[in-house]
């Protein structure tokens, strides 16, 4: 396949994960073509709450990946001036205050804060709890803007971007993928990277290696509201909210079902009322958008990252949370693809676990 400077890599999917992969691969000297069926960040990236956190409840096979996520975004900020993270910290409450932070799904670095400290952090809370967990190092970003910043960095290293270009199939030779057939023509490749979110299942099915990735729906809501209502990221039983960089108030909600009363706009209205009940200063709150994002959720909950078995030249990146892990996975996958350096942190994520006899 030659060395990095002439290794041809086609990345499928221009969400934040695909953009991070393209950036890191191109930065290592690969000839990268990024192919997107629609527009940049038109999938779940564009409908993401985009909280960069290391929280996880229960056993976590990717604890080292989560633990490196924040440091990797700090690195990217120094490399890409257009990538801006709001490091506001995250305030979480609702679990038993006697629990250790890990037990309640909070990061190990979270500290317990008192009611007075909570009000220092969030003075607009009407009903602050007696205690909460505060993770000062966490933050959030505009996932669409971050994707464009990563793509600009990739293009500065020579990467090409093809939008409105649908993948039709693959060319193979001697049990190895050698290229991609698209609506815009054929693309030769030494490596094809699948970063198309929920679309990965269909792509791998074409190779007779279908991966079990569910489309897990979640609601992302944007409101026009007064500025500075929320200073941190608040995660509580009543609401999960943060302030956007442009002043919008952003909220995340679970998707319930297709019933009329649970349509996105209806849930957004109920969430707006909950925000009014929980925060002082909500003189007005107007719904701007309520969208369902389909998160790529591997059936066992662990990301799928690595080469497909039984066929050469295909590397998969499917994960939730994609925004949190995009920076670290982009770097580690780039090292595996270009340098041939297997990452121990990615060992639990290999696609081969689904095809063992």
UniProtKB/TrEMBL annotation:
Biased composition (Polar residues): 99-114
Principal EC category: oxidoreductase
Domain FAD dependent oxidoreductase: 8-334
Region described as Disordered: spans on this chain: 94-114
Molecular-function GO terms, alphabetical: glycine oxidase activity
Protein name from the UniProt record: Glycine oxidase ThiO
Enzyme Commission (EC) number: 1.4.3.19
Keyword Glycoprotein on entry: no
The species this protein was found in: Pseudomonas chlororaphis subsp. aureofaciens
Recorded GO CC terms: cytoplasm
Claim: Ribonucleoprotein is one of the keywords in the record: no
Keyword annotations: Oxidoreductase
InterPro entries: FAD-dep_OxRdtase, FAD/NAD-bd_sf
Recorded superkingdom: Bacteria
